[in-house]
Structures are given as structure tokens and as C-alpha cells.
Amino acid sequence: MITRSGAARLAFGCAFAPGPHTVEHIALAESLGYRHAWLYDSPALYLDLWATLARAAERTDRLGLGTAVMVPRLRHVLATASAIVTVHGLSGGRLTVGVGSGLTAARTLGLKPMRWSEVAAYVGALRRLLRGETVEWDGRAIQLMYDEGHLDVLPVEVPFLFGAEGPKGLAAAREHADGVITIRANPGPFARSARLVTGTVLEDGEPPTSDRAWEAAGHAAATAYHVSYEFGSDMSGLPNADAWRAYIDALPEAERHLLLHKGHVTTVSEHDARFIPRETVAQLTFTGTVDQLAARCRRLAARGITDVIFQPAGPDIPRELEAFARVAAAVAADAEHAATAEGRTA
């Protein structure tokens, strides 16, 4: 069970690619003491974000729920505002809205991510709609015209976090959001700074190249190849990247964006398994023993991270959730011990 000591500096959450059993996994996460559950938004790859959040709101009582991250390009701003009101009401105000420019969600459509100025304008319009204001959008006046019999009564206030990595996204977050969700960036000071981590917790003596570890974390190693390829980054530091890239480049251009993302952040595709060595799990993912990962979490806290969001994957999601709960408990216990020792010496 994850302890909730006031001395613990980190809030621990979990993230899911919405699927048939995600609601059950979110309910388990609440029972294990996770603070938040976050859902990805990529309709080409996963089930619907908002429908899953609505179901999860009715299956949980305390757990914060969030999007990590929803993509403005996929939905009209009024449809998103209505979805926010719905989940906010069903959850009793437990919703946080993470918003991004749409890297994977856009690439699976063969599109580029949005400009951050467009994301900021979308969120600004959302905030005004949720206050009940009339907003001009696409040259027309729009408004949430609810009556008193609806699920919730405006205004609705929810926190917005930006899923940002580069300087433009982080600058937009400082001006237009309440915090950030990052994967690799060192975002600097934010009131709320969440870090998404993917990997697996090793049992004592288990090598990171084991079949179980590969099934649970191989997808996370493959994501480094996917993202580097999409951004046109230098891939020379990734093992066997030349062979992997040659295979991807040889795919039919019209379907390349589909085949590249097969299994993205959930499973290891056939072509990723063929070219990406298992050793990359140790090199590229958040994988280690309980003690090793607890130490990494403490280093994140020292850099200003306020939330660690763990994405379980592989064939045994409950095992992954329970194992990472031990990491969170170790961090909390260490913080309690440090606080007690400091109190004795004060």
C-alpha cells in the first residue's frame, strides 16, 4: 500500500493507454493508494479517452483523474468543453486536463503537431467556455448553453497542464497552464511538474533482459526510436538504429506512419522486436529494482518534479501496478525517516 505521509515530496500516479480493462486497472490503482490516474489520447491506437474517464469516475471515489495528454486537433473545442464538464461532474471535481500539441496522435494521422500558439488559444477558449462565456471560434459565436437540470452548473474550474518538452512548449505552459507533464525535459520551476516514466520493476536477481521485463518494458525502449525518428533527431546513440531506420525508411510512404506506430507505448511490434536489442530496456527505460527506482524518484524530486506518473504495460498490468506501488512506498518511507531524523536534531 502506498503511504500518504506529509513528509513525502512526490505524488505518485499511473498512466494508461485506454483499453477494455483500463477501468478495472484504475480501480485497482485507487486501492493501492495511487494519487492520480491519467489516460492517453490517440484514437487510432486506443479506445476513447473521455468515455473511459467517465466510466472510471463512477468506479472510483478518491483518485484524481486526468488526460495525459488530450490533443486539441482531434476535437472541436465545444465538444471538449462538454466532455470536461461531464467528467468533472461525475468525478466530483477530480479532473485535471493535460493538453499537448499531438505528437503521436497527429503522426498516426500523417500530420505534424500543432503550434503551441494554437494549443494556447484552444485552452484559452476552453477556460472561457467553462466559465459560461460566449467564445468566437472559426468565425462563429459558440457557448455551453446548459440549463439547471444538467449534470453540472457552470462555471467549472479545472487545472490545465501542458505536455511540453521544448522551450516553446515550456514557455507556453508558463503563460497559459497550471503546470507541465514531461517525459525527458528538465522543465525548471513549476507549481506542478509531472514526469511520465515507462519501464518495469525488476525482482531481486532478475536481469533487465528477461522475457518478463521485455514484455513489460520493451515498448518503452522502442518509443525512444519512434520519437527520435519522428523528430529527425540523431539516432547514432541508439543500438542498431541504422538497421531499424533502414527498415522504416523502406516502408511504403503512404502507410509508413501507420506501421511505425503499431503497438506504440503498449507492446513491442514485430519490426521493433527484430531490430531493437533487449539491452535497451536497461539503457533507455525507467527499469530497475525497487531500491534503484526509489533512488531515481528521489533525484527527480530534487530537480523539482512534484508528480511521478508510471505507465504499466505488458500482459500483467496488476503486477506492474503493485510492483511500482512498492517503489512509491519506499520513497515515502525514506521521506518519513528523513523527516524524523531532522526533527530529532532540530
Name the assembly state: single chain
Tell me, rounded to a whole number, the average pLDDT.
92
Number of helices: 13
The CATH homologous superfamily of the largest domain? Luciferase-like domain
Number of strands: 10
The percent range for helix content is 40-55%
CATH class placement of the largest domain: Alpha Beta
Number of domains: 2
Helix and strand pattern: EHEHEHEHHEEEHEEHHHHHHEH
Sheet with the most strands: spatial strand order: 1-2-3-4-7-8-9-10
In whole angstroms, the N-to-C terminal distance is 30 Å
Shape: globular
Which blocks of ≥5 consecutive residues have pLDDT under 50?
3-8
CATH architecture call of the largest domain: Alpha-Beta Barrel
Secondary structure category: alpha/beta
- What is CATH's topology name of the largest domain? TIM Barrel
Evaluate the radius of gyration. 20 Å
Largest sheet: 8 strands, parallel, barrel
Beta-strand fraction estimate: 5-15%
